[in-house]
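User: Watch each token:
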Amino acid sequence: MERKDLFWLILVSVILVVIVSFIIPTLVKVQESSPDQKPVQPQEQRPIQRPPPQPGQEENKHLKTLVSFINIGLIIPLFIIYAGLYRRMRTSFTLGLIAVIFALGMYAVTSNPLLVSLLGGRTGDIGIFQIIPDLCTTVALMILIRISLE
């Protein structure tokens, strides 16, 4: 694959994943429990007291979701690049890179608050320190793409 074709593949992949990240929340409304809702519990259990949501928490959740979807969009072309390299060269180093890319992809999918809540998980409080690992992953993926294209 030529460098120009790879650039367009990466660009289209990231754009599609970002668009999907904006479309999914509008199509699927995720019901989140708010602190004022009373869950159904047996009488012998005491209700769990949750602190009120902090200001800016919703914006942090959207930022983390966006960064996670960008990471997924960067991982897809990287996987395609290294799968093509492995088909041609069959080296264990390339296979190791595919395993690392797969692990990063699983991290991006499982750390995405939207996907976690769609699968029935609880996203919890999302602050700036939960976004920093995703940003570091984004930088690492962009460096790996740059190295892969050389």
Remarks:
- The chain has one domain: 3-24+59-149.
- The radius of gyration is 19 Å.
- The mean pLDDT is 76.
